[in-house]
Amino acid sequence: MENASNITNASRRYSSFMAEYRMVMSWTLGMETVFMIVGTLLNLWLVLSILTSRDLRVRMRNQLIVNMSIINLVQTVIKSPVLILKCTAILHKVLLTREFFCHTYSIMTVVEFTQSFISDWLMVFIIAIFIANIMDMDLESKVTPQVSRLMKAILHLLPWFVAIVITTISISQVTRWYPCLLIPYRNLYIFEIVYTIIPTSLAVLLMVAAILLRIRRFNRGSSTADGNMGVQLIGKGPEIDNTFAYMLAGAICVACEICNLIFVFEIMDWKYRGLTFQMAGYILSDSRVILMIFPWLLLPDIRQRIRSWRPWQRQATGIDLTLTYGKEVP
């Protein structure tokens, strides 16, 4: 009798687990489809609208935003389709080989670590440029054009180079002992510290410094004049960006990482909150490809370009205002 009761309870737990598992797969399939379609369109629109405008693409801040959108596109065109394929196969009970699950898990792991590292460090660079803007630091004018181009190339390529090299070396060491890129949670803990906690914490500290510097500059400008004149002396008009745009971008960056961090740390302590909690963390992390578009729309130059840019319409040629003078012949 007791054995029958145990079997019944085990069967109920298994049925409950499978019901939750199918629900998680369904939600993941739906959300990743949204990320793949909407995220690709939004990021492509942002990238092309900036690159097709000479005034926008010469600014280092906009170049880094384009770089961040490109890594988001890596997720929407590689990771999301692979995850959609995996969820679809599971929901339709397609018999899949172990090699299929290994390859799909490997692709998602590599893209996830690479995207996290590059996006977080690009966020650090963008906030650092904002601080330089607040402090009226024009580093480009103090160096030669060759050094300036080299510095820009380093800022763009260094996160990609480090992420690809470190991820490849680290994962190759893991796969020597663990098949299928099933990274032990202790190694995953180290990955998250290097890839997420350090750059995210640095971005938060820089954002706090930027807010304090902006308040200090505002107070200093207000003390030099009254009314609107004091405001005009603060930031040279539109040259200083909207602080809230960077605050929102930093908040999204932190929010999209925090659930994954909580999940990893609780696993280290042998705690587990279920598949639903894990799914929520992954979905929130992947939603960065859409959410990170909105802070940049608060920047005046990008917002104006997005509103006016219509690639399917030919730009109207300017009106010829050239005046010609002729000598009257009597």
From TrEMBL:
The chain crosses the membrane at residues 33-52, 64-85, 105-132, 153-173, 193-213, 244-267, 279-299. It comes from the Eukaryota. Keywords: Membrane, Transmembrane, Transmembrane helix. This is G-protein coupled receptors family 1 profile domain-containing protein. It comes from Elysia crispata.
